Amino acid sequence: MTNRRKFLKASAFTGIGLGAGVLTRLFAQNGSAVRTAPNSEVFKSGLVLSTWDAGIPANEAAWKAMESGGNALDMAEKGVNDTEANFSNLTVGLGGFPDRDGHTTLDACIMDSTGNAGSVMFLEHIKHPASVARRVMEKTPHVILVGEGAYQFALSEGFPHDSYVSEESQKAWKEWLKTSQYKPIINIENHDTIGLIAMDTQGDLAGACTTSGMAFKMRGRVGDSPIIGGGLYVDNEVGAATSSGLGEAVIRTCGSFLVVEAMRHGASPQEACEEAIQRIKMKHTNYKDFQVGYLAVNKAGEIGAYAIHPGFTYSLHKLGTNKVYKSASLLDN
Ligand code: SD4
After folding, report:
1. What residue owns the CA closest to ligand 1's atom 8?
2. For 62-87, what is each residue's pLDDT tens digit?
3. Model's pTM, two decimal places?
4. I want to staple 226 with a disulfide (CB 3.0 to 4.6 A). Which of 52, 107, 173, 205 is the partner?
């Protein structure tokens, strides 16, 4: 019997539903972690999965990168670059909503199929933070660069200073200043942060996540999106996950890492996303007041999506179609 089937049988026997926690249950039963490949089949036709409706053009860009010979890492980078270049997007790139002092600050990370990772946080005036994150990964001995250091590194790598300021997001900020209330609005305030997972024709996985973060955040605030294991995690042996929504809740629960670890222990991508949302519920009494959504892919090209509230959408490019789907959710309000 495969470990996955054992796991399902065990959960039926104990009568514990998924909500009780895949990992909690497995650790309790086995005393230690057991690595089980959820599925040895490897999907090799290419796949791109990304957050929200804005993922459609990003998926297209990733697909083009694959067709011109790019690997999963190139697909992930080129995919999210497309979103970053769209200055009408109010939650990604230089068009994004500013912090409460009026400055747009950017967070991004990237991870390849070998487990290498790069990240930039609190970066200003650079159009493509995800590409800077890739350079951090490829050209430095570090994983994360922040603020001025990240900016200077970007310049030294040939990324130009970009002084673009979005009239629309500045207008929204001035409006916000009238009340200065920091209150994330479910599915509305931050509906475009892009987390993208790519699988290439070798069946290798990579991912990228890029955002301007929560609108009107404190200056210097960093969310989950550039945090390896928070807004993104890739383990080429198992699968990959990404998140969108209230970053603080994702960081507290190591969200994307948790999703991948659940898959490692036998959960399907869907079960793994549900597990991570359950963990947020367990750790946050106010979980109904904010949104978090997870996406996951395993090596067989199966995908999962789950959110706290309805309204989370995702874009999937697979087997010749690139379409938006509605995620299932914990609450049905
Ligand atoms: C953050 N997770 O900075 C990001 C925001 C987000 O869709 O995902 N918006 O917390």
Report:
1. 244
2. 999 999 999 999 999 999 999 999 99
3. 0.90
4. 107
